[in-house]
Amino acid sequence: MITPISTPASTERIQVVDALRGFAIAAILLLHNLEHFDFWYTPQGFPSWLVNLDKGIWDTMFFLFSGKAYGIFALLFGFTFYIMQHNQAKKGKDFRLRFAWRLLLLLGFGVINSAFYQGDILTIYALLGITLIPVAKLSNKAVLIIACLLIFQPWEWGKFLIALTHPAQDLADPASWAYFGKMSEYITGNSFIKTIAGNLTNGKAGVYLWTWEAGRVFQTPGLFMIGMLLGRTGKFIFSGETKRFWTKILIISSVAFVPLYLLGIGLTPGNIPNEALLRPLSLITKSWSNIAFMFVLIAGFVLLFQKSTIQRVLNVFSVLGKMSLSNYIIQSILGATIYYGFGLGLYQYTGASMCLIIGLALMILQWHFCKYWMRSHRYGPLEGIWHKLTWINSENNK
Predict the structure, then answer these.
(1) pLDDT score, position 320
(2) Could you give the CA distance from residue 273 to residue 269 in angstroms, rounded to a whole number?
(3) DSSP state at residue 199
(4) What is the C-alpha separation between 55 and 25, in angstroms, rounded?
(5) How far, in Å, CA of 3 to CA of 141, rounded?
(6) d(Cα 283, Cα 289) in Å, to the nearest integer?
(7) Is the pTM of this model over 0.90?
(8) How far is CA 250 from CA 92, 170, 231, 289, 300, in A?
(9) Residue 6 has what DSSP assignment?
């Protein structure tokens, strides 16, 4: 049986979740800036000290947040689904059909975002979010088993087992590479129309292929389901029990991360010359180590948030989290304008250190905009539209 918990009323919010979502959206913004919003380009002619500084910043930021900030975002997507489903269930209503409509709306937002930033995750969440519908009324145990099977990366293990029996197979390069290699044809140009067209055609094909190749098609729904379970069991509602839970998670995930990370470093062509074996093992190990570190970040954040003095600091991220959809799309528009050829074209001149400064400046600007907007609005600009359209012809549309 499903074991729902007592959650806040639909008009209330769980503060730590908003703060955690805001933390994730801020980390995503910083990473996107370092990547020139998916157009990886290394400027030439920098002095050696700046090259070393850029490398240090790049390595540190990607170690801390790459694959983890996205994971937090995915997990909280599943958590939000549960909250909405639970609130409707208390009224005797089935949320699943309305959620399918909400996903269709999200797909529309994602297409708009993809015009500026081909690496958009909204369309991917809209498509993969469908997986929550058939599991919405399953027991906690059943959902956990399904989530673990997905996170286990069954496709990659299948490839690994095939490679054991067919070690001499000839592997082609990942299909996404060919599409990413064509980005310079439109990103570096000064045509806004060609950039949009390139992002929506070549760019989206590359991103969808990369999502499959990176194991995200399995991992993302698994994280959605874990987030739903955290909602069902009230793990973001502060109590002695949840404090013990997150303490255990922090210890277990920290212990798991170290060997997984070291194993990932050791998986090299020198140690495993058979690429057919190396590729799936590397992906599985990286996926699992990212999830382990993601839980280190989440558990640490939640535990620190329970300390009143630190909560005041971490709660700064809450306003960003309340407007995460608006912030995500706004940062794509601003980032494309700053780095792409149709705008300022700063991809040519900025290394990781300068991109980090730009990212921090954009984050501060977004924070001030959010503070200003939320003074007189219940929802962010795009959140308000999403809410109105989600609950069209419903008593919730107020």
Answers:
(1) 97
(2) 5
(3) I
(4) 23
(5) 10
(6) 10
(7) yes
(8) 37, 42, 18, 14, 7
(9) -
| DSSP secondary structure letter of residue 130 | G
Measured CA distances, 239 to 9, 235, 302 (Å): 18, 9, 12
* Long-range contacts, 264-270 (Cβ 8 Å, 24+): 264/289
Q: What is the per-residue pLDDT across 334-388, written as a single tens digit (0 to 9) for each?
A: 999 999 999 999 999 999 999 999 999 999 999 999 999 999 999 999 999 999 9
SS3 315: helix
Cα angle 364, 368, 374 (rounded to 5 degrees) comes to 140
Amino acid making up residue 332: S
305-314: long-range contacts (C-beta < 8 A, 24 or more apart)? 305/15, 305/16, 305/19, 305/20, 306/238, 306/243, 314/19, 314/23
Point out the least confidently predicted range of 6-10, 19-23, 52-56, 349-353: 6-10
- Reference 95, options 146, 127, 139, 133; nearest CA is 133
* Cβ proximity of 207 and 119 under 8 Å: yes
Cα gap 290→65, rounded to integer Å = 9
* C-beta atoms surrounding 203 within 10 Å: 26
> Interhelix angle for 15-34 vs 48-65, to 10°?
150
Q: Which long-range contacts (CB under 8 A, 24 or more apart) does 172-178 make?
A: 174/209, 174/210, 174/213, 175/209, 175/213, 176/206, 176/207, 176/209, 176/210, 176/213, 178/206
- 4: exposed, middle or buried (Cβ count in 10 Å: 0-12, 13-18, 19+): middle
Overall residue count recorded for the chain in this entry: 398
DSSP line for 240-281: HHHHHHHHHHHHHHHHHHHHHHHHHHH--TTT---HHHHHHH
Residue 45 gets the label, from left (phi > 0), alpha (psi -120 to 50) or beta, of left
Average pLDDT rounded to a whole number, residues 244-250: 98
Q: Where are the alpha helices (DSSP H) in the chain?
A: 15-34, 48-65, 69-89, 96-116, 122-128, 132-135, 140-151, 154-165, 176-180, 184-187, 192-198, 204-213, 216-232, 240-266, 275-305, 308-314, 318-322, 324-339, 352-374, 381-390
What are the structure tokens assigned to 344, written together?
């300022």
